[in-house]
């Protein structure tokens, strides 16, 4: 067979493999500040009913500040189904 055909077939196979192994982390959305606070509020309301709303908001804002200083932000779940 012609070496050109082999080269084209090999490059096509290489592109298919590279596409299937590509990292989908770019497709994940990062949570906004508002989303993180609302998620925290929901969790705190569900876990401790006796706290006032203002106390929960303060605690969630403090938690967000702490996450900012450490740089550890939770990621939002992926919006699409990852390829296997």
Mean pLDDT: 77
Described by strand count, sense and barrel closure, the largest sheet is: none
Strand content: under 5%
Unreliable runs: none
Order of helices and strands: HHH
Tell me the total number of β-strands: 0
Radius of gyration: 23 Å
Give the fraction of residues assigned to helices: 55-70%
Distance between the termini: 33 Å
Label the structural class: mainly alpha
What's the shape? rod-shaped
Question: Topology of this protein?
Answer:
Elements: H1 3-21, H2 33-47, H3 53-70
How would you describe the overall organization of this protein?
This protein has 84 residues and is mainly α. The chain is 62% helix and 0% strand. The protein has 3 helices and no strands. The radius of gyration is 23 Å and the shape is rod-shaped. The model has no long low-confidence stretch (mean pLDDT 77).
Task: Identify the notable features of this structure and list them briefly.
rod-shaped, mainly alpha, single chain, 84 residues, 62% helix, 3 helices
Q: What would you say about this model in short?
A:
The protein has 84 residues and is mainly alpha-helical.
């Amino acid at each position: 067979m012609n070496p050109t055909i082999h080269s084209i077939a090999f490059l096509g196979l290489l592109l298919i493999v590279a596409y299937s192994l590509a990292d989908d982390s770019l497709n994940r959305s990062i949570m906004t500040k508002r989303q993180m606070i609302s998620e925290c509020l929901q969790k705190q309301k569900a876990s401790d009913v006796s706290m006032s709303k203002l106390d929960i908001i303060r605690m969630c804002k403090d938690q967000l500040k702490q996450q900012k200083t450490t740089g550890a932000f939770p990621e939002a779940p992926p919006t699409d189904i990852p390829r296997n």
